[in-house]
Amino acid sequence: MNTTRLTVLTLGLALTTAGIAHAHATFESDTAQAEKSFKAVLQVPHGCDGKATTEVQVKLPEGFVFAKPQPKPGWELEIIKGDYKKTYDNHGDKVSSGPVEIRWKGGNLPDEFYDTFVVKGKVSGFDKETVLAFPTVQLCGTDGKVVWDQVAAEGQSAHDLKSPAPTVTVKLATGGDEHAGHMAADGPIKLGDLEISGGAAKAMLPGAKVGGGFLTIKNGGGADDRLVAVESPVAGRVEIHEMAMENDVMKMRKLDDGVVIPAGETVELKAGGLHLMFMQVSKPFAEGETVPVTLVFEKAGTVDAKLAVGTAGGGAAATGGHSHH
Questions:
Q1: How far apart are CA 270 and CA 320, in angstroms?
Q2: Please, are residues 149 and 11 in contact by the beta-carbon 8 Å criterion?
Q3: Which helix (H) or strand (E) holds 294?
Q4: Contact in structure between 241 and 254 (CB atoms under 8 Å)
Q5: Pairing of strands 301-310, 194-202
Q6: 45 Cβ contact partners less than 8 Å away, ≥ 6 residues apart
Q7: What is the C-alpha to C-alpha distance for residues 43 and 262, in angstroms, rounded to an integer?
Q8: Which of 139, 171, 203 is the last residue of a domain?
Q9: Which residues pair with 293 in a beta bridge?
């Protein structure tokens, strides 16, 4: 196994969580669909015998692959990588290794407070309904520890266990594309050689002024094009941003020159990578609504589209994984 360390330098947006704290560590959503992306939001309700939690370790089960943790302000990220038992398809690439454990370290979550720890991955390789366990450890101070690693046997309830591991029940996919539910509100849009699809935006928290947007652009022509600008009547301005690793540090930058759409290739704007940032939003995006945008391309011209607003999911994820001041 090898380890990648990521220190969060400056992220000003703390995670905002919803729901009722449970007596043990659980996931905000405990069901996932096979062959789909899933954001595992771990709820940590208390520390160790009154002590503050300083580290959270989560082991990822086989079948939860291509994992990417969400950074937390004030915590260091440690990503432990190893071999998978099987080989998984990642957009045509065969992948047999990746993150197998995530550790948030060096933080301080007092016992009287509640917070969440988020990791996104794909649930893959299942042909029947399956319960995935994510053994979790909380460390508190120099000697405190709480271990959540027990798995209920068949016919047994997790409530019968003293230290149940957080679990997710995998439901079989019912068909359709992995990105279904994140398509542009009026379906794929053609503009010359370009096809725009996958339009989505995250629901925003009350009072928020910054929102994230995502879409996919396919260039079926023989020449490169460029997305040079995006406009929306619901925001003061829309910027194109990129999140990227630089010397093991996640950094964000605004792309003033836009994004190149190479000939014959597809460019995906998604959380944690290239994405749209809606600044000075007039009213927070609400689930079930659509966000109107105008996309301006260097060669193909201009086209209007709509982004379907999905769930907020919590905190930084709603703004593409980082904050703005």
A1: 8
A2: no
A3: strand 290-297
A4: yes
A5: parallel
A6: 21, 22, 23, 24, 25, 114
A7: 41
A8: 171
A9: 305
CA dihedral 27, 32, 34, 36 (to 10 degrees): -90
Instruction: Compute the half-sphere exposure of residue 105: CA atoms within 13 Å on the CB side of its CA.
Output: 13
Give the span between the Cα atoms of 200 and 28, in whole angstroms. 21
Do 52 and 71 contact (CB within 8 A), yes or no?
A: no
* Radius of gyration of the CA atoms of the chain, in A: 21
Last residue of a domain, one of 171, 205, 222: 171
- Looking at residue 28, what DSSP letter applies? S
Amino acid identity at 131? V
How many angstroms separate the CA atoms of 182 and 93, rounded?
23
Shared domain for 219 and 287, answered yes or no, is yes
Domain that holds residue 97: 2-171
**Structure tokens that stand for 149 in this block:** 């690693």
**Is 62 a member of any domain?**
yes
* CATH number (domain holding residue 104): 2.60.40.2230
Instruction: pLDDT tens for the chain, 325 residues: list them.
Output: 555 444 433 333 333 333 333 467 899 888 888 888 899 999 998 888 889 999 999 999 999 999 999 999 999 999 999 999 999 988 778 999 999 999 999 999 999 998 999 999 999 999 889 999 999 999 998 889 999 999 888 766 667 788 899 999 998 854 434 433 334 445 689 998 999 999 999 898 888 899 999 999 999 999 999 999 999 999 999 999 987 766 666 677 889 999 999 999 999 998 878 999 999 999 999 988 999 999 999 998 989 999 999 865 433 333 334 433 3
| 132, 231: one domain | no
Residue 193: both structure tokens together: 């050689």
Q: Which residue has the tokens 């994405």?
A: 275
